[in-house]
């Protein structure tokens, strides 16, 4: 019979590399940031739904109180989007001469809100036109969100 001998492992060297503390810290920070971003995007999505629902209510009633609620939801959305650092900063494009042209979506939303406010206060627009204005504002907000 053959004798099987035990081989000691003391002669073998381990080649495991140790991770530095900064690598672990970075990945932990990334995970936490992703979690925060997901929560923020969920909140923005919920606010968009509230804005859409309130816009329909506003189109039906055309009262100042409903307009105030609608504007408050839009303001919350814009504040959250700014805090999240979404594409509110500046959108850059080129004009025909090749120069940089800066588009500010926030200004456009503000202008549309002013138009909507004027229309509701003057009571001269029907529900369909108000709903159209609400849809334009929602489109701008979705552009920020996407």
Description:
InterPro entries: DUF327, TM1646-like_dom_sf. Residues 1-24 are annotated as: Disordered. The structure is a single chain. This protein is mainly alpha-helical and 146 residues long. It has a single domain, classed as Hypothetical protein TM1646-like domain (Four Helix Bundle (Hemerythrin (Met), subunit A), Up-down Bundle). 68% of the residues lie in helices and 5% in strands. It has helices at 21-61, 64-84, 105-122, 127-145, and strands at residues 91-94, 100-103. Strands 1-2 form a two-stranded antiparallel sheet. Strand 1 (91-94) and strand 2 (100-103) form a beta hairpin. Helix 2 (64-84) runs antiparallel to helix 3 (105-122). The chain is rod-shaped, with a radius of gyration of 28 Å. Mean pLDDT is 72; it is low at 87-91 and 99-103.
